[in-house]
Amino acid sequence: MIEIKYxxxxxxxxxxxxxxxxxxxxxxxxxxxxxxxxTTDSLNYFILTSVTELFNVFFNMSFFxxxxxxxxxxxxxxxxxxxxxxxxxxxxYLKKVFIISLxxxxxxxxxxxxxxxPMTYDFFSSFQHKSTETLxxxxxxxxxxxxxxxxxxxxxxxxxxxxxxLIFIFLEYTTTNLTALKNLRKVIYIIILLIATIITPPEVxxxxxxxxxxxxxxxxxxxxxxxxxxxxxxxxxx
Length: 238
Known about the structure:
Layout lengths: L1 H23 L1 H9 L18 H30 L5 H38 L17 H32 L3 H6 L1 H15 L4 H34 L1
Helix pairs in contact: 1-3, 3-4, 3-5, 4-5, 5-8, 7-8
């Protein structure tokens, strides 16, 4: 119980420390997220339509950032607490899952930061140049709606990459029976399609891109598992 108490104190300390840092540097963080990758000057200001809107922006941003950091920190403490009661292979497996999940998080953040975020700026800034003689289009984004949109895009990107981890875990437990896995392939495709439909906006292109991304990675892992098994059998024969 004493160890659990100290671990909870460590988690709460990290939580409040992270919240304090975010509050102290809130304007710099918003500028970093919203404006740093903008390739145009079209998104250099935002409008606020209520007194509480700016507070909601800070609250949502703080909760969003703390959520991911705290998730991995809590996961680390849970694995560390259970380590003495686990077999060595179980501990290594949980450690492997944690490292892969952390790597996928970093990869999804990098793709969001370097690809999705600039594409978002270019898409919205293009509306500034759509004016004609009969129709003038001027884009004035609300800060809370635009920030929520970026956070939703990041969450979807993160979810897609973490789904790869679930697929890898499933395939790792089913590669012992490759025939059954081949028979279930169509069912797995349907499940992946349903997942892609749920986590993506109601637009066919996004759904198909997410679906193909997950399926291609699953097939690569499936092929590597078959190749690994064949190499292992060949080494036994020799």
